[in-house]
């Protein structure tokens, strides 16, 4: 709405930005990916012989 004061736009932008940042941080830190320990063991056992 153009008739709103600029400080209200600034407050809305700040609230939206903080909400977005908090939401992204929660999604990033709460989801624990499965550890690929079995894949690492299989990868280390393979010999890497490059044939050029």
From TrEMBL:
Keywords from the named record: CF(0), Hydrogen ion transport, Ion transport, Membrane, Mitochondrion, Transmembrane, Transmembrane helix, Transport
GO molecular function: proton transmembrane transporter activity
Protein name per its UniProtKB record: ATP synthase complex subunit 8
Main subcellular location of this protein, as a coarse class: mitochondrion
Location within or outside the cell: Mitochondrion membrane
Assembly with partners or alone: F-type ATPases have 2 components, CF(1) - the catalytic core - and CF(0) - the membrane proton channel.
Pfam name, any one: ATP-synt_8
Gene Ontology CC terms, in alphabetical order: mitochondrial membrane; proton-transporting ATP synthase complex
Similarity annotation: Belongs to the ATPase protein 8 family.
Membrane topology of the entry: Single-pass membrane protein
A GO BP annotation: proton motive force-driven ATP synthesis
TM spans (from-to): 7-31
């Amino acid at each position: 709405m153009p008739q709103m004061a600029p400080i209200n736009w600034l407050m809305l932008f700040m609230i939206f930005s903080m909400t977005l940042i908090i939401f992204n941080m929660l999604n990033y830190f709460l989801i624990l990916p499965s550890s690929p320990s079995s894949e690492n063991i299989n990868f280390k056992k393979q010999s890497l012989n490059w044939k050029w």
